[in-house]
Amino acid sequence: MDVREFSLDLFSLEGRTAVVTGGNTGLGQAFTTALARAGADVFVPSLADDDGTTRSLVEEAGRRYAFLEADITQPGVPARVVAACEDELGPLDILVNSAGICPLSEIRDFGREKWDPTIAVNLTAAFEMSHEAAKQMIPRRRGKIVNICSVFTFLGGRLSPAYASTKHGIAGLTKAYCDELAEHNIQVNGIAPGYYATAITEATRRDPDSNRRVLEHIPAGRWGDPGDLAGALVFLASRASDYVNGHVLSVDGGYLVR
Length: 258
Known about the structure:
There is one protein chain. It contains 8 helices and 7 strands, in the order βαβαβαβαβαβαααβ. By secondary structure, it is α/β, with parallel strands linked by helices. A 7-stranded parallel beta sheet has the order 3-2-1-4-5-6-7, sandwiched between helices. The chain is globular, with a radius of gyration of 18 Å. The model has no long low-confidence stretch (mean pLDDT 97).
């Protein structure tokens, strides 16, 4: 692209359709809202109860919202999600693999009962969703897949070896899919959030010692707000990132440099 063709319109998602797995809770809800405010209609498959809050946020932005109660770890469900999205909202342009779990336990107590569900949700479901999305995107020669990684993509995983393993794995999936899909004008990237103020980190933030240890490791000196991820996601979902591929973008307040 000639730089003289650049405009802020490249960041617009007007007319685009997105799927955000687990997009009605936590960081997923922030991703859904950001995409809608940038112009996309959003389809959300999730096992979490949908109380209408996310729909309201999307519709306030003037976009369409569709929800499907679905367990994307089950065979055939990712294909059904993609088909339902296309039936209800139109051709799939953007996939955000956001759904994830993080059971915690010391290694001696961390067995298959914790390992297997984490692999299924965080990695295998992301693979199957990407596989089904790619089959629709390839003939159209356009598409964006954004995988939600973590700072633990680059670090160890104390108390959650399964979570760290899946986040290392999804970075590998990001690069592998980029390597094959780039020639079809499909971009596959990742976002690695750091420590964010969400329900999943509430116990850590309430404990003075734990809260202090986290904050001392973040150069920005504060926990991330879910809205801090909006710009990165919209960039990677938009035409502005058409030559960015196979990259994992850390949004962590500088956590990884300290």
